[in-house]
Design a protein that fits this description.
This protein is mainly beta and 332 residues long. The protein is built from 2 helices and 26 strands. Helix content is 5%, strand content 42%. The longest helix has 9 residues, at 11-19. It is globular, with a radius of gyration of 18 Å.
């Protein structure tokens, strides 16, 4: 059975947002393309049509979790294993997609479903601890999330251009509506109605600032979660078009996955988060449409989504996916 990738009404918007300058060619060979020597395979994901999207590392156990955009399966890769295992099967608790993933300081796994909201799981028992949904029937696309040191989660909505928030008190209560915390729409560059904008999100080590990217315009925004003030970060050296996942190290190093250009970039943020300078890029077809990345054990793990091989970029179209894998990248 062909997996249901998304609400059909939203498919054109996602294709337009992700496709960009990507030109779909002939079906790929039976194995991933030769990689830059800095790029290797960390582990594989079982399944023929996984189309992974998000990734999260557990700092306590060093396990890595990966979500399937195609059907909401969540996989777990244990340290030293060459293949991940199914951690939460497709459709668990009604989940249709698994976009953003994070493991918080207490080892709880957060999983967004683009069509509804976010669920939180106990990684020891696999039991669901909490569930938050966007109210109403208006279009939404709950995409990525970050968790600040005080335990508050912030999530992007790529259709609405807003940030949602889940506080520790709301988490302890076990669920409720996913409430809007900050509306970035007035600050975003003009976009067609219904177009995708906000994607990846991250926070600095103190939680003073959030950073989120407009993948269409290529802009990075700094958000003060207390005051709600929004400022466009001045970028030097390039832009952030097609930027998807973000990872910010405590020293201000920002790593970015650019999906349709098969590019990873590294930036240096100023201490006040108002400027960012490009330091390094890696572009290689073996990244296979990278959607996001995570730092763990001194290495960068990158999701190879293969969205262009019969996935969200070309549902039902040409292209046959190879084995789905997570890349390990040196030198980023």
């Amino acid at each position: 059975m062909k997996p249901k990738l998304m609400n059909p009404a939203l498919a054109p918007a996602l294709a337009a947002a992700l496709a960009g300058a990507l030109t779909l060619g002939a079906a790929p060979a039976a194995s991933p393309p030769p990689a830059d020597p800095r790029i290797s395979t960390a582990f594989s994901l079982p399944g023929a049509r996984v189309y992974p999207e998000g990734i999260a590392a557990d700092a306590r156990t060093h396990a890595v979790y990966v979500g399937s955009y195609a059907d909401g399966t969540v996989y777990r890769a244990r340290p030293g294993r060459s293949e991940a295992e199914v951690f939460l099967p497709a459709g668990t608790d009604g989940r249709r997609t698994a976009n953003g993933l994070r493991v918080d300081a207490r080892g709880r796994l957060w999983v967004t479903d683009s069509t509804t909201g976010v669920a939180v799981y106990d990684t020891a028992t696999r039991g669901r601890l909490a569930h938050f949904e966007v109210a109403g029937d208006a279009p939404r696309f709950v995409n990525d999330l970050t968790i600040t040191p005080d335990g508050t989660a912030y999530l992007t909505d790529s259709i609405r251009g807003v940030l949602y928030r889940v506080t520790p008190a709301e988490l302890a209560a076990g669920g409720g509506p996913l409430t809007e915390a900050h509306d970035l729409s007035p600050a975003l560059r003009p976009r067609p109605a219904g177009a995708y904008s906000l994607n990846g999100i991250t926070a600095d080590r103190t939680g003073r600032y959030l950073f989120t990217v407009d993948m269409v315009a290529g802009d990075l925004y700094r958000v003060d979660p207390r005051s709600g003030s929004v400022r466009r970060v001045t970028l030097t050296g390039a832009d952030l078009k097609a930027a998807d996942g973000l990872d910010l190290s405590p020293d201000g190093t920002l790593r970015v996955a650019h999906n349709t250009t098969n590019t990873l970039s590294r930036w240096q943020l100023t201490p006040d988060g108002t400027r960012a300078r490009l330091l390094h890029t890696i572009t290689d077809p073996s990244l296979q449409i990278p959607t996001t990345l995570a730092r763990t054990g001194g290495r960068t793990l990158v999701v190879r989504s293969q969205f262009d091989n019969g996935g969200p970029l070309s549902p039902g179209g040409p292209g046959t996916p190879t084995t789905f894998t997570i890349a390990a990248v040196r030198g980023l």
